[in-house]
Each structure stands twice: as structure tokens, then as C-alpha cells.
Amino acid sequence: PCPLCRPQLEGLCCFLQLSTCPEHLLVRFCSWLLDLTPNLSYTSATILAEQLFLQRVLSLTQPPSRHLMAALASFCSKYSQPFCRVLVAAVLREPGEGAEQTKLVCELVEECLEPDCVRLVLSQVLEVSLSEKLLPVMQAVLGRQVRRPPPLSPWEVLPPELFDRLVLTLCQQAPAFATSLNYAKLVTAVLTTYQSQVS
């Protein structure tokens, strides 16, 4: 198919009612996307991530259905970078507890995203004000590594600049989370996984 500009693609998504289509059809649509040749451009994938998933995820008040999870996993398997830029960033910025959204991001980090996108999620967390809601996401990122005994593969090691930002953030925020069990677990995970790098 010839590439579409943003207004054309957004108009097509609206015409097809992709943002509100039944979730079992969403799974089929995402499977069809994986077979497209050539691959979608970054911009097109970003628009589709927004149209297909953003409102569905932000409006969750209970765990996502198996159909929605299957569609998310399918899309992430090929277009995880634009997915993270759109959906994960929106969840991190969303005010309030957002328990189901946070759980969903944690599950995607633990089960679906490639290591480079896991690092992207961590960098996105470190760009916003740290809150109790975000601690499980950081724990999930480190959990990908804690489950693997050292030495970690090059893909799993955090770049020095990202690791430094993580440690600096944890140090700066320590007083605010003095009574937080999640914060204590997170610091323990950092010390366990990166004991040779922490002085």
C-alpha cells in the first residue's frame, strides 16, 4: 500500500472506527498489520498505536480482556518503539492512581517488550515526577534483569548514563519515600542487580 499522510491515516482510522471496534476484531486487525509489506513507517505505527489502544487503555477500570492483551502483544512484537512513545508515555503522565494502567505497563515490560524498549520505558519514567504509582514500573524493568543471574547480556545492561540517572533519582527521592515498601524493594533490586556498580 502507498504511504498515507497523518490526516489521511487518522481519517481512515476514524472511518473504520478502529478506536471502538470490538476487541476480537482488534486482534485480527493487529495480526493483519504484522503481515504488511513493507513495514509501517514510525509515524504510521505511532498513529495506529494511538487510534487502536490509547483510549482503551486509559479508560481501563478492570484488568484488560484476553483479546486486548493479545492485540497489545501482537502490535508490540513489531512496533514496540512507537507503542511506548504513545501509550506508555500517556500512562506515566496520567494523574491519579491508574492501578490497571500501571499493572498493564508492568505486564508488557515483563512479557512483551524487547530490551531496548524496556530501557526506553525506564527513561520515560525518569523524565516525570516519581510517584508511588511508578515504582512498580521501575521494579518491573529491573525484574527483567533480577530474574537472570549475572553476568547480564549486553542487551540487558543499562547504559551508564541511564543507570546514573536511575541512581541519582533514587537518592534524591529517598526522603519522600521513607515509609514506602515499594521504594525499599526497588532499592534492593538495584543493589542486587548492580552491586558491582554501586558504591
From TrEMBL:
Domain Fanconi Anaemia group E protein C-terminal, chain residue ranges per copy: 8-198
List the GO terms this entry assigns under cellular component, sorted alphabetically.
Answer: Fanconi anaemia nuclear complex
Q: Which Gene3D superfamilies match?
A: 1.25.40.480
Q: Which InterPro entries match?
A: FANCE (IPR039685), Fanconi_anaemia_gr_E_prot_C (IPR021025)
Q: Which GO terms describe its biological process?
A: interstrand cross-link repair
Q: Which Pfam families match?
A: FA_FANCE
Q: Protein name, please?
A: FANCE protein
Q: Which gene encodes it?
A: Fance
